[in-house]
Model the fold of this input.
Amino acid sequence: MTETVAQALQQYHFSLRLSETGIVDSVGDGIVWIHGLATVMMDELLRLEGGTTALVFQLGERQIGAILLEQQQEVSSGMTVRRTYRQLGIGTGDALLGRVINPLGRPLDGKPAAETSTNGLLDITSPPIIDRDFVTEPMYTGNKIIDTLVPVGRGQRQLIIGDDGLGKSALALDAIIHQARQGVYCIYVLVGQTRSSVAATLETLRSHGAMSNTVVVVAEANELPGIRYLAPFSGCAIAETWMRAGRHTLIVYDDLTKHAQAYRELSLLLHRPPGREAYPGDIFYLHSRLLERSTMLAPAKGGGSMTALPIVETKQGEISAYIPTNLISITDGQIYLEQKLFSAGTLPAIDVTRSVSRIGGKAQHPAIKREAGRIRLDYLQFLELEVFTRFGTKLEPAMQEKIRRGQLLRKMLLQDRLGPLSATSQLAWLIAYNERLLDDEAPQNLQHLLQQLCDCLAQSDMPLSAPRENWVEAVRRCLEIARVAAA
Done:
């Protein structure tokens, strides 16, 4: 009998596994202090007694600080804590399309958890330079001003900046709705928003059929600060998986002001020394390592891209505040929304004088770039000349003509929200303006005529690469049809 047992035991290999165990010292405000984990790593997942999870966020000589990832009332001092030896990740893949999840990947839409096939780490290094490619493909947002005067390319990081209530989120929603026709996967990250704002955003996306290619990551205002801090990294991990698989993605961070506030809250609770405006000194590094993950990958790495539209809020138009200046220096350009334009009814209230795209022009289609080449300069000259008209200054006929054309252009740039335009529509109105085909139109008829022009050209399927004379003839013909129909 003894020999039989010995022979059976020879089939197995036994090893001794040591596991570190820590003890909770104190807990409060979403932070738990632990001692006894001498070799724990930064950003390692911990499992507390009872199943609650926490993330290591502060390493000290005698204690470590961890952020709670779940709202649990039963966490108290004296509880045991065990290491998991792994980093925090989130399930990624096509199964997430159309879903609403929290930063931990748990469903918030009442449906079962998505069966994801891959796992993406929330915080990893950005792709190295040798894995990247130049930004050469346009990312159309459907907005007249952006696609023509402040173009965005795939792989670019374009900041949307302005005071609260000026339409920053509306611009981002228009861009996502427009991507449903482009085959681009979208991730909308909502950080610190109220439940009513989240519900309105979801209703807008669903009513316009944009949820089929979109994932919404939500960390509401009443969530733990650790959850709000992780939300942008969760969305980035989802987009990054698609990017590395060769897909083109668009991610919106709405907004990074509230994300910075969540990080400041965590840092102060963890006794980190405060700096300017009480933010920790590494707040710049936090956002730079997040946004640097957006890029266009080289063809050898799949050729995918991640375009980022981070949103940041200003107070009374003060763009020199700490967080806005940080993000302006990190991103590749900014779209600035101005309160005076909004109050005057110029919607979208994009200030062309302060908005810039540093690399988007390289990705702009040659036909659109050709037609839009002079428009920005003409519009800026018009804005300067318009100042003189307020004082009753008598201008030369040439200057009066510039002002009249500038006023026409300003009316043509008006655009209703949730009405993104295709690339062909953008080229059509540019040609109509440059060829002076709308100079004699009454201002009240202009928007209707432009809509008829876009609808007519949408049926013709004319490519952007068609000869310019063909485009001019097509625009002229469509405008004649629209005028006859209106009469």
Remarks:
- The mean pLDDT is 90.
- The first strand starts at residue 21 and ends at 28.
- DSSP finds 15 helices and 16 strands in the chain.
- The radius of gyration is 27 Å.
